[in-house]
Structure formats: C-alpha cells, structure tokens
Amino acid sequence: MLNNNYMAFKDYYKILGLSKNATQKEIKNAYRQMARKYHPDLNPNDKIAEKQFKDINEANEVLSSPGNRKKYDEYGEHWKYAEEYQKAEQQENYQKSTKDQFGGYSEEDFSDFFNSMFGKSSSKTHSRQVKFKGQDYNAELQLNIKDVYKTHKRTISINNKNIRITIPAGVQDSQIIKIKGYGGKGINNGPNGDLYIQFAIINQTNFRRVGDNLYANVDLDLYKAILGGEIIVNTFEGKAKLLVKPESKNGTIIKLKGKGFPIYKGEGNFGDLYLTYNIKTPTNLNLKEKELFKELEKLRKL
Fold this sequence. Notes:
This protein is α/β, with parallel strands linked by helices and 302 residues long. Helices cover 34% and strands 25% of the residues.
C-alpha cells in the first residue's frame, strides 16, 4: 500500500472537524473525542492512526491557546513567525512615517540619516523587509519492504506538485530524510523550507527485520535434523543451499553472512540472515513406522 499524497499545510480546524468560528469548548470537546478515537492504545501498530493522533495533538496545542490561535488565524502556516512579522511591519511603518516628516530630504540624504540612527539596514523598502525561511513540510511515505531492498526513483505529489526523488536501498521504518528547498515558499525572497519525509515500511514477508539483519524460521524434518544433509532455504532475494549438521537441535540458529538487508548508503554491503531451526515431529505414523521407532527406542536403552 502506497501513500503518495500529502497535505503539506496542516489545516488545524479541518483536522479537528471544526469551522474557524468554533468556540474553545467545541475545540476541547472535538479534541477529546478524536484523541480517544485515534489513541495508540486503541490502534496498536496502526501507522495511520498514530499520525492522526500526532496531528490532533498538534492542532489542539495551537487552537486551545487563544494567543497561538490568533496568530494562526492571521498568518496561517507562518503563524510561528507572527512576532517577527509584526516587528518588521512596525519598523517599516515607523520608517515610512519618519520619511514623511523629513520630506525635504532626498532619498540619499534620508538613507544616510536613517543609517546613522539605526545602522546599515537600508531605508529602501525592499531591503527593509525581513526575510523568512518558508515552512518546513512533513509527509509520510508508505512503502513495502520489498520496495526498499533496492535503490529506486519515485514520483510523489506535494501540494499538487510532482517531485521525483531517489529512495536509497535500506531505508528503515520511521526513518526521516530531508529534501532541501521543497517546503513552503520563502517570504521576502527568503529561502524555501525543507521537505521531511518519514518512511512507513510495511512488512508482510516471513522475514523479521532488525536493523540491517533479517530473521526467519526454517522447518526441518526430524530425519534431516538427526542425519544431516542439504536443504534449500528462502532468502530475501531468492533461494540458497544450506548444509544441515547431523544431530541438529531444535532452536539452532544459523547465520548466512551477507544475506540480510542492504545497509543504508553502504553501496554493496548487506546485513546477515539468521535462520532458526524449527524441527517438525512426524505425525500420522503407520504401523511399520511405529515399529521402527520402537526398535530405535530399544537400541537407545541398551
């Protein structure tokens, strides 16, 4: 299951299912209901519910605070920079009113006068504007574990804009990578924000991944466990021959070096594969087989 669509700008009202004129009581009630619904304890191992829960808490933190809510309503995704905006606007308004009072000055004279009082921040409008970095965007990309076994390219959509990215082999579940400059547009020619992508790796294989190593069980019949011999086992990328030692015990762990998962940004390097023997006891024995086991039992008692 892939999730290539992202909501870069978080609409906190929409997250809580509220309108912009919602009361503080309505915000509180909506938060309680949704937090209960998406709480991790009620949705174990559900990545989507976990993300919803985080967004709900983030929305509540902003909207439940009258001060933060006011900033959010006025400045939207840039609400965290509200104070900087206000200071910049006050400074610009002050400089404009000062220039009006000194109308007899030329633009050069006014600049010199202003610089002598306030430093070389320039009195020209465009240079007086404070530059702000754009908002950083956060997104989640769901991938099958088989998709991250090899490096590949993928196109994702951010705010209706397609971005072609390279996903290195070996990325981990919950790992976050940064794509510089693909966040919100900067203000007053400031730099764009960055895009942070968190990976949700879905594993529906028989292999358990821990770091760069893989773990799996191998069923071994009793005869092979006792007598030894060659068997064919599954690895993540195919089949491999394995020599079973005679008299192998149940739970024996065998390491296949280099048959694990690719090491992130470690070109050509792999973790290891650990296989655990699960010896299967024969069932539905016929009379002849039972007699042979009885004979074996007698021999073992001699």
